[in-house]
Amino acid sequence: MTNKEWEDRQREREKKQKEWEVKQKERELKQKAWEGKVNKSKSYLDDITRMADAAKPYSESHFADALLALATGGISSILQNLLGEKDSLNRRKEHLCSCSEKLKEARTYFSRYKEELIGQDKAQVFLRLTSIQHDLNAAWADLNDKRQKLNESLQRAREEREKERAAKQAAWEERQRIKVEKQRIWEEKQKAWEERQKIKAEKQKEWEARQKEREQKQREWEERQREKERKQKEWETKQREWQARKRR
Hints:
Layout: H1 3-54, H2 75-113, H3 119-247
Helix pairs in contact: 1-2, 1-3, 2-3
């Protein structure tokens, strides 16, 4: 092999070596770019996942279960329990509204940066958002069902309370009527008693007047008797005097 041929081969090898080094550098740059994209995608995936998880509704165990069946203890107690449950459902609604808003924010964030995500991360985000949306839809459906049943129970309870109030009012009015009737009867009896007392008093006065009259007549009779006795004594005295004169 001549020197010229060796030099040509050497230059060819050096050329291929440089081409390989350029390609290797390009591969390294692409790998680095890919790793950067993967890391960036992972960062966005973590952000979206965190935002999506914040939108996941709490399980129903975090809230009071609906008390939709009428319970014992009086209609007032039932209404109080139902109104307490209404407050619980209102808090549940506020929670679901907050979750829906957070899910919307997560979707907006995903739409803004989805081109920055790699395929599998996009698929994972899509599945995650879809799953949470499903949970939210189910939670809203459950809430609306419970609110409807609660409103029906409240309506029934209010109707029962009105019936109870009407019954109590009727019973009170009946007691008042009986009370008034008893009062009227008592007043009539009182009036009759007072009338009898008045008649009794008048009869007593009449009796006392007759008694006084009898006593007066008795005194007059006794006076006449004494007068009669006095005259009888006078006559007897005169009679004795006359007989005495006659004997002389």
